[in-house]
Structures are given as C-alpha cells and as structure tokens.
Amino acid sequence: MKDALTQVTTEASGIFAGLKVADFTWAAAGPIVTKQLADNGATVIKVESFKHPDSIRLGGPFIDDKPGINRSGFFADFHSSKLGISVDMSNPAAIEIIRPLIEWADVVAESFRPGVMRKWGLDYASLKAINPRIVMLSSSLYGSEGPWARHPGYGAQGQALAGIHGMTGWPDRPPAMPKGAYSDSVSPRYALSALVAALIHREKTGEGQHVELSQIEATAQLLAPELLVYQVTGEEMTRAGDAKPGSVLHGVFPCQGEERWIALEAVTEAQARALQAILGLDGLDRSAVAEATATRDAFALMAECRAAGVPAGVANKASDLLEDDVLNAHHHFWPLDHAEMGRLNYNGPAYRFEKTPSALRFASPRLGEHTEAVMTRVLGFGQDDIARFKAEGLLQ
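Above: the chain's sequence. Below: its structure in token form.
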C-alpha cells in the first residue's frame, strides 16, 4: 500500500494538483479552507504539536465515546487528504524547520489571533523575504485591524456580533444560537474564493500577496437583505420564529417517532389546498397542522407532499444523512481508513468538476504522523538532523 506522501506528491490529480500549502490553521474556519485544497489535489502539510495540538482534537464526538488525541470525528472530517507534522512552534529554534517549509510552499494559511504569526517570525513581511511568491491567507474573528483585533473569541461570539443571533429564534424569547460556531462555517466560503483570486493574480503577475479575512465581516454578508430593509424603511428586522413573509404556511412540525420532524411550506393557494387535502384539514392553522403531522410517518408524508407539489423535507438526523438517497447517488461520502478510528465516511466536496474530479485520498493525520517523511522527503533533512531536532525538543 502506497504511503500518504507518495499519494500527494507523485499521484496528485484535481484542480489544485501541484499546489503546495503550509497549513497553520486550527479549529474550523481555517481547516475547512485547506481541506478543499487537499481534497482537490494540493499537497497540504498541517503544522501542530503535542504541546499545542489543534483544539478540536480535544473535542468530540470521539469514536466509540473513547477520548483520544487521534479519535475526534470533528477533527477528522476537516483534515482528509492532509499530511501532518509535529513541530513545537513555541521554541524559537523552530524556524530552522519552518524556513524550508516556507521556501517550498505556494500558500501559507493561518487562523490564529492576529500577532501569533508575527511572534513566531512568520508575519507576511517575513514570509515574503523568504519566498517572494508566497500567498498568505490569514483568517481571524475580528480581522487584523480595529479595536477588537487582538481580543479572544470563537464562532459563538462572531455570529452574535455579525447579527445572526438577533435574527434567530422566536420574537417572545431570547435569541437562539444556531448550531455550533456558525461563522466558522460561513467564512471559509469567502476565504477560499479570495485565496483562489490571489493565486490567479500571482499566475498573471508573479506576485504573491497577503489575503486577510474577518469572520465577522464574512458572516454579516448573510444579513444583506435585513440591512437594506433597515436603511430604506427604518424597520429593524428581528426574530420571527418560523414565519416567512409571502408563505401561507412555513414551519417545522412533529411526526411519529423520537425527534422526527418535517419542514413544510405552502407558498401558493394551490399548494395550500393540496396540503390541506393530504392532512385532512379545512385550513392551515399551525396547531392543527402539528396535530395532523404528529400521527404521520415523516418520510411517507414527505413523499406524499412532493407528489402533490408541496415543498417538504424531513429534518434528517446524522444517521439519516449516511443513508440519504440523494447524497449517496452523488457519491457524497468517502469511506476512508484511519489507523485508530477504523473506516469512517467523510464528507466530500459539494461540487463536481467534469475535467478534474475531486478525490479524498486518505484519512485525517494522526498527530505527527508524517513528521519524519516530510522532514526527509520534502524538506531535505537527514536522520542526523531529525535526531538533533528531537533532542532539542522541536519535534513533539
């Protein structure tokens, strides 16, 4: 069986084949970007250490509910097709290892609080002095400038400051937080587009550049309609529960079974009449609809609604997604073997390239799994160097 380094350096295919990435990102917002590069052919080398591992390695869900540094499903799904090395970046001597990595790379990606990379001697000016063609992507919660630039924070604070919490929930209740760090899921879409634009610019001019992204600014893009309404009318949009202007009915309703729900919407009068007939109702009062759906199987009701032209969707659980006909028809999930977690299904890209198909080549790296292979076969160090680095505490 060919090792991971052979797969990424000599057998790479995909739209980003040949692209070389030094990945200092952590948590979610940054790794989601570099996952898209890795799953599409780039050679991505993730840098962390046992002293300072990526924080989501420490959070579940863990396979078989057994915690472990290499057992996080959260971490695994964001790091398919990446190589992983362990270097103690808090040691000033780490630059001896990192400098050839920067010389090798096309892209340096990081998602720390502003100032961390500078502390390590890896700010853009320093990187450019080493490699003039380097493109640096920096993603942080508040951006590198402004009064909050160096404040700590996570996605929950980011989405609140971007206005998401104020729009989510019921008007007579406190704001409801969307699942997880919502801004961490939004900002990578903008970051990836900006990074690709910088790479196109480099192809045209030979010049690298620094791309900076504020996760709050990226998330605020989702509230563009509400911002325009306020500016034009003075009306402050706020939490509206399930209500949707222009729809006769719009909401999520209970069905048979534990935590079984269905999302229903009737926009036209024809859809409203069809839904009334399906549910045996004279109108679409919310409580009456909920009472009627509570006795129905969610999937059967969805099929009946769709046949009648009524928009409907079961609120799928994670277990449902793995068996979903649409996702499986698109070959969305990729089964990959991990040394500690075994075979798991990983999320693949949500797009399809006709000429350069994506491919998840191998599972997420165990912490430090590829250190020696990268050090010798990519960065050109010998076994004596590695022994010295280990003795100095750099490789941990």
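The first strand starts at residue 20 and ends at 24.
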